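#dry-run=false #mode=assembly
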Amino acid sequence: MSERLEDIAAAIVADGKGLLAADESSGTIKKRFDVIGVESTADSRRDYREMMFRTREAMTRYISGVILYDETIRQKAADGTPLVDIIKAAGAIPGIKVDAGAKPLAGFPGDTVTEGLDGLRERLTDYYKLGARFAKWRAVIDIDQAKGVPSANSIGSNAHALARYAALCQEAGIVPIVEPEVLMDGAHDIDTCYDISKATLIKLYDELHAARVVLEGTILKPNMVLAGRKSGKVSSPEEVAEKTIRLFHQTVPAAVPGIAFLSGGQEDEEATANLNAINAIGPHPWKLTFSYGRALQAAPQKAWSGKASNVPAGQAAFTHRAHMNHLAALGKWKASLEQAA
Ligand code: 13P
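#status=ok
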């Protein structure tokens, strides 16, 4: 494959393909494994991820790339094959999470800023040698309006860090996935999500321009415009699609080749239905696809539940969700296809 940033970015958002976000930190994957009663060890994490990466249909037809965690990019399958080689053999691109997580922002209770810039140039060089051709950095913007969260300082600090990260990635020949996640955990309504997401994206593209990031060699990984979960409201896919696309028309340059959504805590089918509605109202200047963690993995995790004898069931569950999201990325998904499975 060509190594130009623009070509890697185009491959990530190739028609009907999206990313598998399998970059849970050791703490996060332990929480997921706790739910299915599996002890989180280096071997159980490897076995689980190997199961997905060896799912032939999903990996060759629906998944363009996998976001890995530092442990996984260095891990070998049970038979000694590096996991990265299994991903590449399926025609998918290995990627790597490089941020060090969201930390409390000094002076701004309730706000966070994502850390990890120190030493990043050297780590990116190392990850390139290990096979990574794209990276991810997640900024977290919570909404709690009564407490003045998010502050302008939080939005600005996170945008600045994302831009410094993106510039370092491009210097290393790695496509930056730029992820400013406005959380759906709050009690806010959908229009508040729109307003905060708009302020976040305006600041983000200001900073990316200021840092001389080549937008053609980037991918945006945003939230959809949704009501906060604690509001008790679930917006229709049509409303989510209309507001999400209006937001991007206001804020995301057409030079950006693709937008790959996070699922953010949406139910599996909700994340698929919303992506489908977004693509059903095209054409759009960017490809719009998935970079789901939970919405791709909840079903296979449950089906697998840590037993080698359940690997075929886990792979079938993964293939089904990847297939449904493939159709949604093309605007061709229907709810009846879920029941059929
Ligand atoms: P979710 O789809 O579970 O939100 O995870 C995507 C991701 O990579 C968050 O950083």
